[in-house]
UniProtKB/TrEMBL annotation:
Gene from which this protein is expressed: sipS_2
GO biological process: signal peptide processing
UniProt enzyme class: hydrolase
Location in the cell: Cell membrane; Membrane
Chief location bin: membrane
Keywords, sorted A to Z: Hydrolase, Protease
Name of protein: Signal peptidase I
E.C. number: 3.4.21.89
Residues covered by the Peptidase S26 domain: 6-99
Superkingdom as given in the UniProt entry: Bacteria
One GO CC term, this protein: plasma membrane
Span of the signal peptide: none
Length: 107
């Protein structure tokens, strides 16, 4: 969970840490050139594939995450305001970690 402005917070997944390279190509995210395993998106990706499309339609060219910053992505990849739009999230913007939703623990 991080502050976008004084009155606005976002909840996203931290995908890449300071010093790591990150790239998004279709439904695959790469960290330091290696594919990131994201089992929490499996059903959505398979559902899109069964319709002949990708789940994510917004790619991101490879960048290195600066020191003191993080790269975040939303699970609704094609319709999410995340680091692809907002840029890297600074450490001081992060206010907490979400561990459950409606009482159910997150993977």
């Amino acid at each position: 969970m991080f502050k976008v402005s004084n009155d606005r917070m976002f909840v996203k997944r931290v995908i890449a840490l300071p010093g790591e390279t990150v790239k998004v190509a279709g439904d695959q995210v790469y960290i330091n050139g290696a594919p990131l395993r994201e089992p929490y998106l499996k059903a959505a990706i398979e559902g899109a594939a069964s319709k002949g499309s990708t789940y994510n339609v917004r790619d991101y060219a490879e960048h290195t995450v600066p020191e003191g910053c993080y790269f975040v992505l939303g699970d609704n990849r094609s319709n999410s305001s995340d680091s692809r739009d907002l840029g890297f999230v600074k450490r001081e913007q992060i206010v907490g970690k979400v561990t459950s939703v409606n009482g159910s623990p997150l993977p």
